[in-house]
Amino acid sequence: MRNFSFATAAVTLVLALASHAGAAEIVVLAAAAVEQPFEAVVHGFEHDTGNKVAMTFGSVGAIQSKLKAGVKPDLVILSTALVAAAEKDGTARAGSRAVVGRAEIGVTVRNGASAPDISTADAFKKALLAAKSVSFTDPAGGGTAAVFVAGMLDRLGIADAIKGKSLKFNAGREVVLRWSRATPRSASDSPANSFPSRS
User: Fold this and answer.
1) In terms of domains, do 79 and 7 share one?
2) For the residues of 81-147, what is the DSSP string, one character each?
3) Which residues constitute the domain of residue 85?
4) What pTM was computed for the model?
């Protein structure tokens, strides 16, 4: 989904909350995957309406834990499956769900490296095995994409082979920033593949 579509949906949700609650502050818990587009929307919203939005971003698992601990935000942005689960267990109002966007998982190589062949599952597997290191978001944080990547490595049968050369980060943005700013000391310090999985 394009960012303007996400922005339109997010503004609509936040405006509805502001008019319904008449609140000066709207509390939002959201998956890290939507942080950049949502922040851009919110700054304009705050400027235009005078309302304030208190935003907390984190992995889907971290946001889910906050909800289970009793945090009561005005708006929650999570994966579809977890929003459905929150409606079912009562931590979100039933029937209030709306789709506002789609997060995708990317594969990238460091600047100057040759792009690997990832056209088939077998080629992708070979590229991962050939990489000196592989960076991705730590699935222990509960992020949807991070959990997917860990499962994918299992399904490809290479989880153990990748384990010793994996570099895990708390958020996909950290993966990208780490390697976009890095000046590699050696080939082994440079990931040939990374998964910026930010959910």
Assistant:
1) yes
2) HHHHHHHHHTSS-TT------------B--TTSPPPP-SSHHHHHHHHHHSS-EEEE-GGG--HHHH
3) 3-89
4) 0.61
